Amino acid sequence: MAVSIIRYLDDAGALHWGRLVSQPPTGPNDIVKVIDLAIDGNSSTGELIAEFEWNSKAFERGQVKQIKAKSLQSPVTKDATLICQGLNYSDHAAEAGHHQRKQNLLFAKASASLSGPYDDILRPAGVELLDYEVEVGIVLRSKLGMGDVVDDSNIGSYVAGVVLCNDVSARDVMFAASFMQWYQGKSYRTFCPAGPVLYLMAPSEVAVTLENLEISLTYQGERRQHAITSQLIFKPAETLTQIASITDLGFGDMILTGTPGGVIAQGTPKLIETLKTHLLDDASRREGIRVEMKNLANFLQPGESVSLTMRDLHADVDLGGQHSVIAEE
């Protein structure tokens, strides 16, 4: 049976891993009940998963305590490798101008971007086109490498759990810097709020759960994004097989599976023409993109907030939510 794992700071500044035994939080002012786990709070997510694999019964015992949700940290630790999928829902691909997806788009995101579910998102100096992306992160329970072929019959041997993530993006850096710096535009500190929980599953639960996760994002009180993972174009098993043909991943590493439609940035014909016409002219491309995007929409501003939620529809389980305020770096 799946369990919800949290990671938090106590009043003395010490880290703890715990199992959630109450409803998951959706905001920083919530109070939740946890059982501390008998594992060093400084242990990595990979080490936690290894402990769960070795002795899952130990996760069921302990004394219940109450903690403030605002103390929660990312349940994915910063030693993890983060691989992302782009344009993996048809409505998002369409709004970006890619109506026919024929190849899986993979890119990297720095793990230093990981932050807690209720931390501020810091807008870097000079960034004007700050955007949100609600996503499901899948966390590995075993090594993935050359020759591995993943399908629905064995995906539970590779995937340990899922985490709600916000793949925050600086669109002006992604598309306007020299040769379009996706890694930089995705990787600033605080650009990957994660949590509140790591939803750890038994291997037999993984395949059906990965088809039935519902995610949503609300911006300034208005729902902007909503999807169910059955709508993913390139499914997790196919994606893991492709990644295995390229590189090695291990315990605790995470794949962000893509965001649905409803992001602020839209791939208008004028924007696409600007990208093509000024590919080698950084200054003209940046100015053209900045003007076109800002004429169409308001991007994330200091003082504004985004809220995200995730739910396991198959098990009828809420997996909590995030709430982040935008702040100047």
Overview of this protein structure:
The chain is α+β, with helices and mostly antiparallel strands and 329 residues long. The chain folds into two domains: 71 residues, no CATH class; 247 residues, Fumarylacetoacetase-like, C-terminal domain (Fumarylacetoacetate hydrolase, domain 2). The protein is built from eight helices and 19 strands. The strands form three sheets. Strands 1, 2, 3, 4, 5, 6, 7, 8, 11, 12, 14 and 17 form a twelve-stranded mixed sheet that branches. A five-stranded mixed sheet has the order 9-19-18-15-16, with no helix packed on it. α7 runs antiparallel to α8. The termini are far apart. Pfam families: FAA_hydrolase. Belongs to the FAH family. Its cofactor is Mg(2+). GO terms for molecular function: hydrolase activity.
Q: What characteristics describe this protein?
A:
single chain, 329 residues, alpha+beta, Fumarylacetoacetate hydrolase, domain 2, 12-stranded mixed β-sheet, 5-stranded mixed β-sheet, 8 helices, globular
Helix/strand/pairing category: alpha+beta
SSE pattern, N- to C-terminal: EEEHEEEHEEEEEEEHHEHEEHEHHEE
In percent, how much strand structure appears in the residues? 25-35%
Q: What portion of residues is helical?
A: 10-25%
Q: List the total number of helices.
A: 8
Q: Flag low-confidence runs.
A: none
N→C terminal distance: 41 Å
Q: Architecture of the largest domain in CATH?
A: Alpha-Beta Complex
> Which superfamily, in CATH terms, is the homologous superfamily of the largest domain?
Fumarylacetoacetase-like, C-terminal domain
Give Rg in angstroms.
19 Å
Number of separate structural domains: 2
CATH topology of the largest domain: Fumarylacetoacetate hydrolase, domain 2
Cα shape = globular
CATH class of the largest domain: Alpha Beta
Average pLDDT works out at 94
Count of β-strands: 19
Described by strand count, sense and barrel closure, the largest sheet is:
12 strands, mixed
Family: Belongs to the FAH family.
Keywords: Hydrolase, Metal-binding
Cofactor: Mg(2+)
Protein name: Fumarylacetoacetate hydrolase family protein
